[in-house]
Design goal:
This protein is an alpha+beta fold and 117 residues long. It has one helix and eight strands, in the order αββββββββ. The radius of gyration is 27 Å and the shape is extended. The termini are far apart.
Length: 117
């Protein structure tokens, strides 16, 4: 009877041990993915566009990220080395209505915010 009880319990112990191994593997993979994401994301966020972005007369030197404007139309003078994306909504939401290449200007009737990398 002890022999039969042992064989019944063995698969349960193996399943439990396998579950722990799977959790450890999943946890390790999760940590590796998070580390890889940070390694890629941090250097990109550390770089800003070189030059000046002028929005409705306000100069932003070496800009990076999203800039809101409440004035319409939105005057964009891109004196940077990056493309500037003009969005219809605040906080760079909505549709992209203009893409302003480096060293170009644009007037956007429907622009509310811009994004530059």
């Amino acid at each position: 009877m002890a022999k039969g009880g042992w064989s019944c319990r063995a698969p349960v112990v193996l399943e439990f041990t396998g579950g722990i191994a799977m959790r450890r593997l999943a946890s390790t993979l999760g940590v590796l993915v998070a580390a890889a994401t940070l390694a890629v994301a941090v250097p990109q966020s550390a770089f800003a566009a070189n030059g000046d972005l002028i929005l409705n007369g306000v100069v932003h030197h070496d800009p990076s990220g999203c800039f809101d404007s409440t004035r319409r139309p939105l005057f964009v003078d891109n004196r940077t080395d990056e493309y500037v994306y003009v969005f219809t909504g605040a906080d760079c939401t909505g549709r992209v209505v203009e893409v302003v290449p480096p060293d170009e200007r644009a007037v956007s009737e429907f622009g509310s915010s811009v994004y530059v990398r």
